[in-house]
Amino acid sequence: MSRSADRFLPVDGYVPVIDLSATRTKAGELLVAQAITGACETSGFFTVVGHGVDQDLIDRMYAVSRAFFERPAGEKAEVAVSPGTHGLYADAGSAAKSLGNNAPPDLNEVFIAGVRGDRPVESRAPDGNTASPWGAVNRWPGTPPEFRAVWHAYMAAMERLATDVIRLFALALGLDRHFFDDKIDDGMSTLAANYYYPLTEPPLPGQLRKSAHTDWGTLTILHQDGAGGLEIEQRRRGWREVPFTEGSFVVNIGDLMAFWTAGRWVSTLHRVRNPAEGRTGARISIPFFHMPRHDAPVEPLFPFSDATTETRFRTATTPGEWYRERLAAMVG
Question: What is the pTM of this model?
Fold first, then answer.
């Protein structure tokens, strides 16, 4: 086995670490596709290294995001989300509510920007629906001054990485590598920074930094620090922490990809637990939520074996409507 292939060994038997640099050879690409298949059929999560994203860009992304979140609340409110905009969710609601579950508000703030959000309105919302998640305009803070440029650079890096990964998804599913290209072109993807502020008083019963939820799209690419807290629900074994690997991203599939694969790949419940007693400081994580085009045709690639799974994903007619429904449930 090659040195790169050693990186496909599973972490704790559940979340494999996959070295994307191995895809430079055909043999390595096949091994990566096989590793992705195994991960997506079991936990729905894997960790990638050898991804090519510059560490300096990652560091700058954290720096500008931290500087923004540490500004006074009144200043941050200037870019608060309003209808037809992306920006700051000072009260991010409860992620659990997107699944119809009641839970106290999550203990975080979130800043979100859309990949389409800086385009002219006729390009951003060609259907004229500027109130939709895919037609919303980005609201950018003026401080720190480099915030917008750094976020744009990081967003571009995530779009490239997501495209690489979703082409590997196609190979893992036995499809042409470009099968998804026309469905994800001009998509609704968003970049977010989660600010888990210091906990100065005890949480409410059942209140978490991020309540249990699934992601909604094709895939999520998360950068997290070494503080930990991300947990996934393993069948019959309860909640397990996702191990931290230096220099890596955590990738998980979302509901739309689970639907696309007729439930063969799993969109797994995950959450961010509260820190241990005495460790109440702030931390930041940075997820990129990859989504297809709002009106893309998304039909199962295989027959469903479970009617319950199929019903769960057939509540909306398009990816855009699915996104809109989940967002309204979470913050409503």
Answer: 0.91
